[in-house]
Design a protein that fits this description.
The chain is built from 5 helices and 7 strands; from the N terminus they run ααβββαββββαα. The termini are far apart.
Amino acid sequence: MRMLRLALALLFALVLAACGSSTGGAGTPPAATNSATELPGAADGDSGGGDSAVDACSLVTDADMKRTTTFAVLSQQATTVGLSQTPGCTWSLDAGSGAAGAESVEIDVVSPGGRDRYDFQSGGVKPEAMLHGYGDAAFWSGGDLSGDIWAVKGDAMVHIAYSLPVDANRPQELIFPLLPLILSKV
């Protein structure tokens, strides 16, 4: 019985020693590492969220939104966007559907770290989805009623998500003109 206790104590000591050496010493946590599934910008303390210095709600006024989309703004609300919880802003539009919030435009900006995020987002995008004349690079995914537009200027990435009513399925006319306005302010 004494040999069993001695063997268990020795095994326990070996496990503790192995754990201590992998962390750089007892009680010292291992350094954070980038995993392959982590979004760019999420390392080094940038969660993709709260570090953004851009207030998305200040980039477009209600008058800008009405002039561009042709729809009056029902409400504007600061939000967080996507898995990265990037600070953003949502404008609910009065498109006459009777379903409040069904038609909307959501804008978020990642800066700093936007270039890395854009490069990650645009990986594998087909050439026909690329947009020309917006910032350093841009692309569109989705369709006429709803979709997403990503553009990058310097180290700032702008993302616009939209949902339009069935009878107003012209994002090229109603949503795309927001990009130059936003890009001029980031």
